[in-house]
């Protein structure tokens, strides 16, 4: 667990009476407790039964194991895989070699993961334990410890050496990968330098495989000894994100939880917050990170030593509120009398969608999940039968049990299950895995209903495999029937659902600090490269989204163009790229495009935050942008970007207000200061099936662009340059609109007034699809003058009276045409053409 580090007691004592007074104020009413385990037990302990401890980690001692199993507790053993220095006595060549050619210090300890003799010895020991403790004194699982390359992370300043460059590793790397180190690199240090400069990512991947392969082999051995019962394989993890410590988790330790997921049942990040000098909240953050990255059960192991009782209670409460399903404590010898009762209070959030078992659900149409590997064309014809009672188990996420619904042309498909009553206005988080065979029907999405309110899960865009979907829901002020429904209202479509969960949880509150400023209002485009950047700049755009590579960066620098660089989505590749390109990137000013619509891909939230963190580590003041098509996912990615680019493409089949409505929803989560917009600039015959048969007109693009400004956009991008400039008319329309936006650049940098513009519609056509006034307006003020930006969102003529404050009764004029707009009785009477945008400037 901690190598050779010795722990000492240093916790002050408190009376049990005082502690219980504190504790019962800390913990809300929670559900039944999850698994609680104690590490390092080496004797009988009455506290285990007194405080309902469910599992223990023991040495491989048969008498101890028999006693604990007889007491009804699960027993786990820990296998130290590559830790310590004992192996060096048996296998001197198992001592890791550092990048400079020197041997690893004894104080750090660690074993070279490629040493076959040591690997065989560890696997043989695992087999012997499984054979010895498979009878009445049977164990419930094995946890792998030090399943990584060497390093001491259990301190505020980690010491993680760069290993292993022994001759065996260097030869095996070349043999396994086909990469050949240059002959000029003759000594260890030169070979390590060559790898860093020429094959850093391949070296990292290869190191990860040395760790993953051991877990894979351990899984095989455990399965061979299971004898019809489940023996769990757990893994102790270094408590780091991939973005932490310059990517040391991947590049140095080579421990990748995602790669271990197919073989491990439980992950236990060692969240010893005091040892590494982190706040209590960090415990929950790392726990949730591992939960999302792996999709497995996570039982974090927390620190008891040097943690005051009240703080220990906070840690347990933090884990209870995270995604953890269990809790472990390090270590038995350090647990104080006052800490034991706190463990009894651990309980994961209650899943209100309890496993219905048999006979508790009702379905109008259910199906068995398609066989593993069945082609999509068979899914619609999978076995289906109308039943009165469900026989599907919710919690069997990996066992394959799922509920399948196929809607017919004459009926809906609905599966129902009882819910407890909810508290009005309280927030809940729903999550489940959903599967669809294809996305040919772009308008079809699964739906759920909770307490009488329907939710359309329109982020379900992945096909052919299960996609994890999440959404926050709110208990209605007047809740309907306490029922959960899984619904399919789309004839000919099949949706599958498994592992649904509903827990009481509110969206995290987001800090409303101002995001970094690029120094100008971004007017840019997608579809750029080094080949067309010059013509993009000549058109008047001040930025463009280009891939992060040397050629594009050099082109941006030569044009003195502030480009927006689309970065890799794998943290390790991003670290490597930024390190390699740092000399170029420091020569100019750049923004970073961190992700494209992560919500519809269920991109892991933690991984998205890794990308943001890595960029900020390299360029603290840089601006980061993320496109979002479904605004309801913004709370999940709020810490993953500075700006959220709403990219709704309504032409020609959707209302223009799809964009502004989405921006309004996004503003509820992160404020308007963090919103940008992507304006549709594409469409042709090849995209007709997707709903975009033609290019938008000038009026439509102008409407969308200025509508986004009215609703707070802090930057405008067009999607996409090659499409809109493919025709003469498209290029002329685009150039005209960019020219208009550029002429407003000083004003666009000014934030809109917070006071809403008062107006009255005076024509027959007066409301948008949501019943709001068809004309949307915002007001800005600069150097003592005011500007009104107004847009007609309808495809028809309309009129409006716009109120002007009593102190602003001077004449106004059209910014673009200089046409006067006199104020009459405190109002401007404005007549709008279809989709027309008007910019009115106070004229003194």
Q: What share of the residues lie within helices? A: 25-40%
Give the strand line-up of the largest sheet. 1-2-3-4-5-6-8-9
Number of helices: 24
User: What is the average of the pLDDT values?
Assistant: 90
Over the alpha carbons, how many angstroms does the gyration radius reach? Answer: 31 Å
| N-to-C CA distance | 75 Å
Low-pLDDT parts are: 2-32, 356-399
- The proportion of residues in beta strands is 15-25%
Give the overall shape, derived from the CA principal axes.
globular
Query: Structural class of the secondary elements?
Result: alpha/beta
* β-strand number: 36
Largest sheet: 8 strands, parallel, barrel
Description:
This protein has 844 residues and is of the alpha/beta class. It has 24 helices and 36 strands. It has an eight-stranded parallel β-barrel, surrounded by four helices. Strands 21-22-23-24-25-26-27-28 form an eight-stranded parallel barrel, surrounded by four helices. It has a five-stranded antiparallel sheet with strand order 10-14-19-16-17, with no helix packed on it. The protein is 28% helix and 21% strand.
């Amino acid at each position: 667990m901690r190598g050779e580090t010795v722990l000492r007691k240093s916790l002050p004592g408190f009376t049990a009476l005082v502690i219980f007074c504190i504790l019962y104020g800390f913990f809300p009413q929670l559900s039944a407790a999850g698994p609680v385990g104690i590490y390092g037990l080496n004797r009988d302990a009455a506290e285990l039964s007194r405080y309902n401890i469910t599992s223990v980690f023991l040495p491989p001692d048969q008498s101890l194991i028999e006693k604990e199993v007889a007491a009804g507790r699960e027993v786990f053993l820990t296998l130290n895989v590559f830790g310590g220095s004992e192996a060096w006595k048996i296998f001197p060549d198992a001592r890791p070699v550092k990048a400079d050619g020197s041997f690893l210090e004894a104080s750090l300890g660690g074993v070279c993961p490629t040493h076959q003799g040591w690997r065989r010895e560890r696997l043989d020991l695992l087999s012997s334990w499984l054979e010895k403790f498979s009878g009445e004194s049977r164990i419930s699982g094995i946890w792998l410890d030090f399943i990584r390359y060497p390093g001491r992370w259990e301190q505020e300043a980690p010491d993680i050496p760069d290993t292993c460059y022994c001759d065996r590793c260097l030869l095996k790397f070349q043999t396994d990968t086909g990469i050949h180190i240059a002959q000029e690199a003759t000594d260890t240090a030169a070979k390590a330098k060559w790898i860093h400069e020429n094959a850093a990512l391949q070296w990292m991947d290869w190191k990860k495989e040395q760790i993953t392969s051991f877990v894979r082999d351990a899984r095989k051995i455990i399965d061979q000894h299971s004898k019809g019962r489940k023996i769990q394989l757990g893994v102790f993890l270094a408590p780091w994100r991939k973005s932490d410590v310059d990517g040391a988790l991947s590049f140095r330790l080579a421990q990748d939880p995602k790669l271990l997921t197919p073989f491990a049942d439980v992950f236990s990040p060692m969240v010893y917050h005091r040892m590494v000098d982190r706040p209590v909240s960090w415990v929950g953050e790392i726990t949730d990170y591992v939960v999302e990255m792996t999709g497995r059960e996570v039982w974090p192991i927390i620190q008891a030593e040097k943690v005051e009782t009240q703080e220990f209670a906070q840690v347990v409460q933090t884990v209870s509120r995270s995604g953890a399903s269990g809790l472990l404590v390090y270590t038995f010898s350090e647990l104080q009398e006052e800490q034991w009762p706190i463990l009894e209070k651990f309980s994961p959030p209650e899943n209100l969608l309890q496993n219905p078992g048999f006979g508790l659900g009702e379905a109008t149409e259910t199906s068995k999940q398609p066989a593993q590997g069945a082609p999509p064309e068979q899914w619609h014809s999978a076995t289906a039968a109308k039943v009165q009672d469900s026989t599907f188990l919710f919690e069997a996420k990996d066992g394959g049990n799922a509920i399948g619904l196929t809607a017919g042309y004459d009926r809906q498909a609905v599966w129902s299950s009882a819910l407890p009553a909810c508290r009005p206005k309280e927030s809940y988080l729903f999550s489940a895995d959903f599967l669809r065979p294809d996305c040919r029907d772009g308008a079809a999405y699964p739906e759920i209903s909770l307490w009488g309110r329907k939710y359309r899960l329109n982020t379900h865009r992945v096909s052919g495999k299960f996609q994890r979907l999440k959404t926050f829901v709110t208990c209605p002020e007047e809740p309907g029937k306490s029922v959960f429904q899984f619904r399919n209202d789309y004839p000919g479509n099949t949706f599958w659902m498994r592992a649904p969960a509903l827990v009481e949880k509110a969206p995290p509150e987001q800090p409303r600090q101002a995001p970094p400023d690029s120094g100008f209002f971004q007017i840019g485009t997608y579809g750029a490269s080094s080949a067309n950047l010059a013509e993009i700049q000549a058109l008047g755009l001040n930025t463009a989204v280009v891939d992060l590579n040397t050629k594009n960066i050099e082109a941006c620098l030569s044009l003195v163009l502030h480009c927006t660089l689309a970065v890799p989505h794998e943290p390790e590749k991003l670290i490597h790229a930024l390190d390699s390109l740092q000399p170029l990137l420091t020569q100019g000013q750049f923004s970073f495009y961190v992700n494209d619509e992560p919500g519809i891909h269920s991109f892991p939230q933690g991984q998205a935050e890794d990308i943001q963190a890595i960029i900020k580590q390299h360029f603290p003041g840089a601006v980061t942008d993320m496109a979002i098509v479904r605004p309801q996912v913004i709370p999940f990615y709020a810490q993953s970007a500075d700006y959220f680019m709403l990219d709704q493409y309504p032409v020609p089949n959707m209302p223009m207000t799809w964009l502004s409505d989405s921006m309004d929803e996004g503003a509820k989560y992160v404020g308007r200061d963090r919103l940008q917009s992507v304006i549709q600039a594409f469409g042709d015959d090849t995209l007709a099936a997707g709903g975009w048969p033609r290019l938008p007109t000038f009026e439509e693009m102008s409407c969308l662009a200025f509508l986004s400004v009215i609703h707070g956009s802090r930057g405008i991008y067009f999607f996409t340059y090659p499409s809109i400039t493919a025709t003469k008319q498209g290029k002329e329309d685009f150039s005209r609109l960019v020219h208009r936006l550029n002429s407003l650049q000083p004003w666009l940098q000014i934030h809109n007034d917070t006071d809403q513009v008062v107006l009255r519609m005076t024509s027959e056509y007066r409301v948008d699809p949501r019943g709001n006034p068809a004309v949307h307006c915002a007001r800005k003020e600069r150097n003592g003058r005011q500007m009104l930006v107004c847009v007609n969102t309808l495809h028809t003529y309309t009129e409006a009276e716009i109120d002007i404050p009593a102190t602003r009764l001077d004449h106004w004029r059209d910014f673009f045409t200089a046409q006067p707009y006199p104020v009459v009785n405190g109002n401007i009477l404005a007549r709008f053409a279809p989709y027309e945008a008007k910019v009115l400037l106070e004229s003194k």
